[in-house]
Design a protein that fits this description.
By secondary structure, this protein is an alpha/beta fold. The protein contains six helices and ten strands; from the N terminus they run E-E-E-H-E-E-H-E-H-H-H-E-H-E-E-E. Helix content is 30%, strand content 27%.
Length: 230
C-alpha cells in the first residue's frame, strides 16, 4: 500500500516560488490501477515523480507499507527505485545501440530475471529480438519500453502519458498489452494522462487541478482499451 500524506512540492527560489503540489494526501492499494487526470500544469506529473521517488517532497510523507521513502538517503532511494518500481514515459528512452533483446535485458538484469523473454513475447515482439530502435515503429518502441520496465518485476509501474506520442490504433494496442500484463502479474499501476477516456480503464481515478486533488472516484465497471473512446 502506498500512502501520501500532506505532500507539498515547490520549484524555483524565494523570489519566484512555484508551489506545484499543495498538501496532497491519498492512498493506493496493492494491485490497484490508478489514473491521475488533470490539465497541463495541474501537478499530475510532479505528483507521479514524488510518489515514485524521482523527486523529494518539500514536506509531507510518501510511504510504501509504512516505510517513508521521503526520508531515505540518496543511495537508499536509488536502491528502492531499482528494487520496487518501473517507469514508462511518453519518450521511449531506449538505447539506440542495443537491440530489443538487450534493451529489455537491462531491466531484467536489475532483478536477476532470466525469463525476461516471456515479457517480450507478451508484448508481441518475440520475432524482433535482433531489431534496433531505429528499425521499429513508435508503437513497437513503446512496447519495448513496457517490456523493459516489467522485466525488472516491479511492484509498482508508473506511467507518464504513455500513449501521448502514439496514434489511436497504436495507443490502444499498447494500453491493451499493459492491461493484460497487469491482470497476469498483479502489479500496481499509477498512470498520469490528460485523456479522460483512458480513465475508464482504471479502478480508481484521481482528478487534479492547480496542485490539489479535486476528486477521487472508483469505476464500478472498467473498460478495455478497445471499449473506451479516444
Amino acid at each position: 500500500m502506498i500512502q501520501v500524506k500532506e505532500v507539498v512540492k515547490s520549484f524555483g527560489n524565494k523570489e519566484n516560488l512555484n508551489k506545484v503540489l499543495k498538501g496532497i494526501s491519498l492512498t493506493i492499494k496493492d494491485g490497484e490501477f490508478v489514473v491521475i487526470l488533470g490539465a497541463s500544469g495541474s501537478g499530475k506529473s510532479t505528483l507521479l515523480n514524488v510518489i515514485s521517488g524521482l523527486e523529494r517532497p518539500d514536506s509531507g510523507r510518501v510511504s510504501y507499507d509504512s516505510k517513508d521513502i521521503s526520508r531515505l538517503s540518496d543511495k537508499a532511494l536509488t536502491e528502492f527505485r531499482k528494487d520496487k518500481v518501473g517507469f514508462i514515459f511518453q519518450q521511449y528512452y531506449l538505447l539506440p545501440n542495443l537491440n530489443v533483446d538487450k534493451n529489455v535485458r537491462m531491466g531484467a538484469d536489475l532483478a536477476g530475471n532470466g525469463e525476461y523473454r516471456q515479457i517480450i513475447e507478451a508484448v508481441g515482439l518475440g520475432g524482433k529480438l535482433d531489431k534496433y530502435p531505429s528499425e521499429l515503429s513508435g508503437g513497437e518502441q513503446q512496447r519495448v519500453s513496457v517490456a523493459r520496465a516489467l522485466a525488472k518485476k516491479p511492484e509498482v509501474l508508473f506511467l507518464d502519458e504513455p500513449t501521448g506520442a502514439l496514434d489511436e490504433q497504436t495507443g490502444r494496442l499498447v494500453l491493451d498489452y499493459i492491461s493484460k500484463l497487469h491482470g497476469k502479474y498483479h502489479f500496481t499501476i499509477v498512470m498520469v494522462t490528460h485523456n479522460l477516456n483512458i480513465a475508464e480503464m482504471a479502478d480508481t481515478v484521481i482528478r487534479m487541478n492547480s496542485g490539489k486533488i479535486v476528486e477521487i472516484y472508483e469505476n464500478q465497471m472498467t473498460k478495455t482499451a478497445y471499449e473506451i473512446g479516444w
